Each structure stands twice: as structure tokens, then as C-alpha cells.
């Protein structure tokens, strides 16, 4: 699980061009949207694409994304349970 969280942090930083955040500073439980990392709805779309492309997970319900994308921890748990790649 730790390897998956590390991989996710690296992919999120690269996909969303978050040069101001290093993997070491990226806390597993930090909120990704709002007051946490500060991601927005465009970033959410990028995360949906990342899940599909890298892990074979297709999100069809936007409400589901809100739960999954709370933090790196919640994303890693969801990926572990649902990945097809």
C-alpha cells in the first residue's frame, strides 16, 4: 500500500503540474480539494483520466469521485479494491 501511495503522489504531481509540492511534503491524509492541496474541478477530471488510464478504473458517478478523491489515502484504498490493471 505504501508503494501505491508513493506512486499516486508522483503521478498526481506530474499530471497536475504541482511543482510547488514535493512527494515528501504530500501527506497521505491531506485533503486534495479546497483548503488542502487546493485542487479544482478541472483537476478532478485529470484524476478520473489517471484512474482509467493507469489502473483501469472507470468512474461513472460524479458523487463517487468526491468520496474517492478526498486524499491520497482514500484513492489508494479505492484503487487497491477496484483496479483492473
Automatic annotation (TrEMBL):
Protein name: Acyl carrier protein
Entry superkingdom: Bacteria
PROSITE patterns to which the protein is assigned, alphabetical: CARRIER (PS50075), PHOSPHOPANTETHEINE (PS00012)
Keywords per UniProt: Phosphopantetheine, Phosphoprotein
Pfam families found in the cross-reference section: PP-binding
Domain Carrier positions: 4-83
Amino acid at each position: 500500500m505504501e508503494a501505491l501511495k508513493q506512486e499516486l503522489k508522483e503521478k498526481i504531481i506530474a499530471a497536475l503540474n504541482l511543482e510547488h509540492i514535493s512527494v515528501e511534503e504530500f501527506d497521505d491524509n491531506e485533503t486534495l480539494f479546497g483548503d488542502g492541496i487546493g485542487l479544482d474541478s478541472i483537476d478532478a477530471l485529470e484524476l478520473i483520466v489517471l484512474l482509467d488510464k493507469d489502473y483501469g478504473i472507470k468512474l461513472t458517478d460524479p458523487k463517487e469521485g468526491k468520496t474517492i478523491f478526498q486524499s491520497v489515502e482514500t484513492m489508494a484504498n479505492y484503487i487497491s479494491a477496484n483496479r483492473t490493471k
